[in-house]
Design brief:
Blueprint lengths: L16 E4 L2 E4 L4 E2 L6 E2 L22 H10 L32 E9 L12 E2 L11 E3 L10 E10 L8 E7 L14 E2 L2 E2 L7 E8 L2 E3 L2 E6 L7 E3 L7 E7 L10 E10 L1
Antiparallel strand pairs: 1-2, 3-4, 5-17, 6-16, 7-16, 8-14, 8-15, 8-17, 9-12, 9-16, 10-11, 13-14
Length: about 270
């Protein structure tokens, strides 16, 4: 049978067309097959298409690169151990990434250098950065809580000092929920039988007595727990900083320009 047929205008078979601006465009039904055979294209008989030989655009993934990527993905989703997790590389200009978890442990240090003298303290005196009351800077434990209004549970305090003497090296850390302003400077009477020479006493959050127990060539240190209870729950009145003042509880003779590092340890609630 011939491949072509003749159509005589005005007679014969009616042809399907689409009238576009007076021009009849024939409608064609798609079929496929080898010579001498035609299969109507449909959902059950789709056109066979192969893209194996089509050129890929520049930078497109190939079978080998996709396979390599697949090999790096975990077999299942969900939390994994470190060895089964994908590594992440942060951008070179990425700042610190905060990590927050419930009851996260905290270890926060605040430091100061006392004046350049060796004047002996009496029990109850303030140990501070300046002998002038208006120049005393309280210890500041920054970011003690995650956000304003939160609490931190402080269970232990560690004090380290650059001087090596253990003689009468006994101290008491006073914690405050707002920055205190002492009315005395270093070596002034801070604690007079419970009367504290500072404001913000109503924001006093507890005390931690610490006695220096060990010394070495690089200084001395001691560890203390709360005077009352197993910990101090502290909530700054504003912001996220907890403050402190250091009292000496014995007749301690300091080193000139002795450096004190005070560390609070606990967890955020």
């Amino acid at each position: 049978m011939a491949d072509n047929i003749q159509v005589t205008q005005g007679t014969g078979t009616v042809m399907a067309t689409d009238d576009i601006s007076g021009v009849q465009y024939p409608r064609v039904k798609v079929s496929w097959g080898v010579d001498g055979s035609a299969v109507d294209a449909s959902a059950s008989n789709p056109l066979p298409v192969s893209a194996a030989s089509l050129p890929l655009p520049s930078g497109a993934s190939t079978e080998s690169t996709l396979s390599g990527m697949s090999g790096k993905l975990p077999a299942t989703l969900g939390q994994k151990a470190g060895t089964d997790s994908m590594s992440v590389v942060l951008a070179s200009d990425q700042g610190n990434v905060p990590v927050i978890s419930n009851n996260s442990e905290v270890r926060i240090q605040a430091s100061f250098t006392r004046p350049a003298n060796t004047t002996a303290y009496a029990a109850g005196d303030l140990v501070a950065n300046s002998t002038t009351a208006g120049s005393v800077i309280p210890l500041s434990f920054s970011n003690a809580v995650r956000t304003a209004g939160d609490c931190v549970r402080i269970e232990r305090v560690r004090i380290e000092k650059s001087g090596t003497s253990l003689t009468n090296a006994s101290f008491r850390l006073h914690l405050f929920e707002a920055s205190p302003t002492p009315t005395v400077g270093d070596n002034g009477v801070y604690n007079n039988a419970g009367a504290l020479a500072t404001d913000n006493v109503l924001n006093h959050a507890g005390t931690f007595p610490v006695t220096m127990l060990w010394s070495g060539s690089d200084g001395a240190m001691g560890i203390g727990v709360p005077t009352t209870g197993s910990g101090a729950t502290v909530s700054p009145t504003s912001g996220t900083t907890v403050y402190g003042l250091l009292e000496v509880t014995a007749a301690y003779t300091p080193a000139s320009e002795e450096i004190f590092h005070v560390v609070i340890e606990g967890y955020r609630t």
